[in-house]
Amino acid sequence: MPQFDFASFVPQLIWLAITFITLYFVMSRIALPRIANVIEERRDRIANDLDQAEQLKLKTEEAIATYEQALAEARAKAHGIAQEARDKLSAEIDQERGVADKQVAEKTAEAEARIRASGKAALAHVNEVAADTAGSIVQAMTGGSATKAEISAAIRKEMSP
Q: In the chain, helix, strand, coil percent, each to 5?
C-alpha cells in the first residue's frame, strides 16, 4: 500500500496540508457565506411568519370578542322582545279576563234577579194557596165559610214578624 510507504509519507502530508488549506479557503470564502445567508433568510422568514401568526391571532381574538358582544346584544334584544310579548299577552289576558268577569257579573245579576222574581212569585202564590187552604179548612171544620179578605188578613197577621 502506497500510503504506508515511509518514503512518500512526507509528500503525502504536504499534499494533505495543501488540500486542507485550499478546501478551507473555498469553504470559508464561498460555501459557508452562502450557507450563512440561507440560514439568516430562514431565520428572518420564520420570524416574519411568527409575527404574521401573532397578528392573525390578535385579529382572531378581536373577531371573537366582537362576535361575543354581538351575540350578547342579540340575546338581550331577544330577551327584551320576549318580555315585551309576555307583557302584551298579559295585558290582553287581563283585558279579556275583565270582559269575562263583567259578563259573569252581568249574568249573575240577571240570574239573581230571576231568582228574586221567582221567589216573589212563589210567595205570592203561597199566600193564595194558603188562603184557599185555610178557607177549605175553616169550611170543613166549622161548616161555615170565611171571606177571602178575612182569611188574607189572618195570614198576613201570622206572617208578619
A: 95, 0, 5
Average pLDDT, the chain: 88
DSSP secondary structure string, 18-82?
HHHHHHHHHIIIIIHHHHHHHHHHHHHHHHHHHHHHHHHHHHHHHHHHHHHHHHHHHHHHHHHHH
Q: How many CB atoms lie within 10 A of CB 150?
A: 14
Q: pLDDT category, 75, cuts 50, 70, 90?
A: very high
Identity at 139, one-letter amino acid code: Q
Residue type at position 127: N
Looking at beta carbons, which pairs linking 6-9 to residues 24 or more positions away fall under 8 Å? none
| Nearest alpha-carbon partner for 3 in 46, 41, 15 | 15
Query: What is the pLDDT at residue 161?
Result: 62
Residue spans of the domains in the chain: they are: 2-159
